[in-house]
Amino acid sequence: MTDAAELRRRTQEFLAAHPPASTARTDFLRARFDAGLAWVHFPEGLGGLGLPRTLQPVVDAELAAAGAPDNDPRRIGIGLGMAAPTILQYGTEEQKRRFLRPLWTGEEVWCQLFSEPGAGSDLAALGTRAVRDGDTWVVDGQKVWTSSAHLARWAILIARTDPDVPKHRGITYFLCDMTDPGVEVRPLRQITGEAEFNEVFLTGVRIPDDRRLGEVGDGWRVAQTTLNNERVAIGGRRLPREGGMIGPAARTWRERPELRTHDLHQRLLTLWVEAEVARLTGERLGQQLAAGHPGPEGAGMKLAFARLNQEISGLEVELRGAEGLLYDDWTMRRPELVDFTGRDAGYRYLRSKGNSIEGGTSEVLLNIVAERVLGLPAEPRTDKDVAWKDLAR
Ligand SMILES: Cc1cc2nc3c(=O)[nH]c(=O)nc-3n(C[C@H](O)[C@H](O)[C@H](O)COP(=O)(O)OP(=O)(O)OC[C@H]3O[C@@H](n4cnc5c(N)ncnc54)[C@H](O)[C@@H]3O)c2cc1C
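That is the input. Now the predicted structure with flavin-adenine dinucleotide docked in place:
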């Protein structure tokens, strides 16, 4: 099966066998996965049909027209955008079969246990230890800024398994059960007043060796797949025109003529054009992705996304004047998703501050673009050949 018409026919047959109106949501999503219509570029038996990623919109359009439920992708972004491609690339057949279906249906939420208090931009310096004990690994350490840890059943985790070799070489990648004894999740309140993310303490957590992803000591390479996908997941979402942060700002301009000034008009037009250029670049990146795995190019998209979100939300607050300083809700909530368009301008302004930090800071992404895209000389790295245990901390 290669063409769109055949895929459309297959989707219609699926809808006839599983009418959305009379099929329970989870049953519908499980059946969609089993029919290979979840992510058509995944292999058969794992939710896909081994087709080009560019054909997915054919399925999505048919299902949307029939009023079918989706898997609420914004709620399970870490699973879909980061855990799934990494499990697909490095997982054993057993791991793929165990984890991908409930990940895609949203029955199991995932989080990412990477950053630590002493290891963010310099992630390879991480100190959470995993020590082998027969068929299990015993994990001790602390992670931080862990989005969705309070909702998650599973985590992608990187930990140090060999302190005697240089930092990039002694790391191993695991799939961690967040319900295991020894996993403690504490909320961290952020500038929006909410606690989207958490500190996670790992004390004597036992992870069976069959939940290791990739080889022992090869975790840094495995993590690159996650990080490259993360930048695309954060910055490279394909959107309709005015689908991002520029949408509410442009709407305010159109609907509130009394707020307009010449100066703000010029700035809004400039940002509108830049947002549209970024959106079209995202389209092109999406097409490049269809042909292979994401590389460092996603860093450029994520950089543009962060800068534009901050500038546009700042402009919107200015446009609204005193009203722009109001804030809808300061109670500490534990949101299930980041909602840029459903909340007020103050929320957008505050939340977008994190866009230039999460998924790699803008400074670090500029370094990646300089070195790996433009081929400029690398920053001096004096710790490359020093054993992790001998690094200054
Ligand atoms: C909203 C949000 C959600 C997040 N969710 C998760 C999550 O789910 N899981 C997870 O593991 N992490 C998560 N993070 C953490 C995020 O990945 C880190 O905050 C980020 O990598 C930066 O690390 P840091 O906070 O330790 O800052 P640091 O690395 O300490 O950086 C401090 C400052 O120094 C600059 N800097 C550092 N190194 C260099 C360099 N070589 N060149 C130039 N400048 C440099 C940085 O740009 C920054 O301005 C989240 C963060 C945010 C804001």
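Residues 111-112, 114-115, 120-121, 145-147, 197, 354, 357-358, 360-361, 363-364, 367 surround flavin-adenine dinucleotide (CB under 6 Å).
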